[in-house]
Give the backbone structure.
Amino acid sequence: MFLQLKNTTIGYKTPLIKGVDTSLDLGEICLLIGNNGVGKTTLIKSILNQIPTLNGEIVLQNQPLKRLSQKKIAEQIAVVFSKSQVPANFTLTDLVALGKYIHYPYYFNLNNSDLQEVEKIIESLNLTQYKDFPLQKLSDGNLQKAFIGRALAQNSPMIILDEPTTHLDEKNKIIILKLLRNLAKNHNKLILFSSHDWRLAKEFSDNIWLVDDGKLEAGIAEEILLKHNELLNPEVFRFNENFVAPQIFAPQLEKEMLYSFLQKNFTKNLSLLKFEFKDHFWEIPDDKIQRKFNSFKEIAEFIANHD
């Protein structure tokens, strides 16, 4: 195994996650998931030996992490944090190329092979048109992609990403996720990334590390999701205590959208009403008149006039 955590407790002065026994190997993609404040970033920093463990040990390529220098760890693990300091006077190409210098002295000039690899990484991230832009002029999303590019240029066996898709739209999120999966499966990299988006587990990840109540549960993504129904079916947020929902028969997304719309606009008890989504229309299935609604506005007008 490339990475092992043996009875590891992580935290600062007090434990955040206790008794972690798990491992990951090259070629695997693992999603680290959990609520804010449960210790995800602290765990990442512990794997990087930036924070000492409170108990147990972390092993990297059969060597105790505590015995490795920061340079050796950096050669083995590339990292992208959600908030990174932007180097002054750097262009996008400068930042991506910076990943190469973990292997060279700071005064070294990159060779043609290195420069071609940097160009290829920039192209794979769909950033070619911005390659000479100062970092300060990049959007948050493109800046995040540039930092990911730096990690890719580092060419380490493992890549850790803390909330890597936070500033990305759906199109760029897919670009990054496809690229990372290609690296894992076709180039034998180990990818560990944290996110609040559990959907990434089902569609993208091999494994899940779920942090909850001071413990880390590890396993195959689909098996963890089946054991934790709350991840797949989160409770709808209720802010209107006087609202009682109607019966809604529809796919999950349409059901949630109608519930959201009605909760914001009505406070009365609607439990006697039934709505069904069929053939792109909303219907009241038991209504003698067979009412059909093309829009939420029409539904709202009906409810407003309904006794």
The domain at 3-232 is CATH 3.40.50.300 (Rossmann fold). The two ends are 66 Å apart (CA to CA). The mean pLDDT is 88.
